[in-house]
Amino acid sequence: MTTQTELEKESLLSDNDILDIVLDAEQQATEAMEDTLSGLVNPLILRGPPGTGKSKMIEIISQKMGVQSTDIISSVWSKHSDDDIKAGMSTYPYRCDHLVKVDGALVRAGDYSKWALVADLYANKDGGALCLSDNDSILKDKDAVSIIMSATEQNKKKVVSYTKSNSTHELQMMGVEPTFEVNCPIIIITNIDMDLMIKVADVESKNPKKPKPKPEVITRWEALISRGTYIDLKMNSPRSVRTYCEYKIKQVNMLTDSSYLENNFGRSLTNDEAEACMKWIRHNQGSLAQPLDLRTYNKVAGIMINRKDTWEKSSKVRFLKGV
User: Fold this and answer.
1) Residue 307: CB partners within 8 Å, gap ≥ 6?
2) How far apart are CA 268 and CA 257, in angstroms?
3) From CA 179, how far away is CA 185, in angstroms rounded?
4) How many CA atoms lie within 13 A of 145 on its CB side?
5) HEC string of the chain?
6) 24 vs 13: CA distance, rounded Å
7) Model confidence over 58-109: pLDDT tens digits?
8) What tens digit of pLDDT does each residue of 140-165 get?
9) How far lies 311's CA from each of 75, 254, 281, 287, in Å?
10) Taking residues 167-195, what's their average pLDDT?
11) Domain ranges within the chain, ordered by starting residue
């Protein structure tokens, strides 16, 4: 959450000043990712808006560092025949026909459950890396956070316990043990301002008139941050998000040399079209129906290609509020 005071301070800055602040935070995050993947820090928590390329950056860095992870959930499983079990070929009713390996960190975005978290930690207990990308529901579940805490203990032996493994079908199928040691770097990407919420809870707990106990999950956030690294990527206002997105687009030629646009719409944008796309979004950002991210530019670019003469009108209808 950006306060009014912060917005007022930002209004005195140029776009280049804002970009410098964001890029400094990005450099700090890059170095922290390398430290986390090297086993020096665990966990790394990055706070920033979705759709600004954070997960992709983690994929690229972890691949360059030679990390290989296991995606046990996407692997192919089949049931042993009763004859195989009777013959002693397996004490477990399922077998893995194809174990899926991933170059780089295993990135889990969107809906995510505790059993899936346990499965991923088990599959990567001896190597790999796990990135929880915008899985804020997991961070608000005290039991799930407790599992992450166990996996990031500063002790040499990190033991994760999940007694429901014996009764959860998916974990039974995958042979996940209810208790296991794990050595897996964890990177958490979130839009939750954990630092601010911790500070608010701390003030409320010390209120002399009516102290309010800290929620258990916030106490566990404090523990995670204290043992790892927490970095705010400084994209806390619409202007800072837009400034960073424009920088990223120009840095990687996202609109003018785009496999996404070429595969879906037959071509990339010209330089003039890319500038027009960014200018239109810049002008209309305050009226966008959804928060701005890099995907917004690709969506507008697709309309530009498909409806060359009426793209502005079509974009207005599709993306702006109250149209």
Assistant:
1) 314
2) 6
3) 18
4) 19
5) CCCHHHHHHHHCCCHHHHHHHHHHHHHHHHHHHHHHHCCCCCCEEEECCCCCCHHHHHHHHHHHCCCEEEEEEEEEEEECCHHHHHCCCCCCCEEEEEEEEEEECEEEECCCCHHHHHHHHHHCCCCCCEEEECCHHHHCCHHHHHHHHHHCCCCCCCEEECHHHHCCHHHHHHCCCCEEECCCCEEEEECCCHHHHHHHHHHHHCCCCCCCCCCHHHHHHHHHHHHCEEEECCCCCHHHHHHHHHHHHHHHCCCCCCHHHHHHHCCCCCHHHHHHHHHHHHHHHHHECCCCCHHHHHHHHHHHHHCCCCHHHHHHHHHECCC
6) 16
7) 999 999 999 999 999 999 988 766 666 566 555 556 788 899 999 999 999 8
8) 999 999 999 999 998 888 999 999 98
9) 42, 19, 12, 17
10) 92
11) 4-232, 253-319
Please list, in sequence order, all residues whose beta carbon lies within 8 angstroms of the beta carbon of residue 53, skipping any fewer than 6 positions away.
248, 294
May I ask the CATH class of domain 4-232?
Answer: alpha beta
pLDDT interval class at 246 (50, 70, 90): very high
Per-residue HEC secondary structure of 69-100 comes to EEEEEEEEEEECCHHHHHCCCCCCCEEEEEEE
For position 97, what pLDDT does the model report?
86
Tokens of 138: 């997991």
CA separation, residue 221 to residues 142, 177, 195, 301 (Å): 9, 26, 9, 40
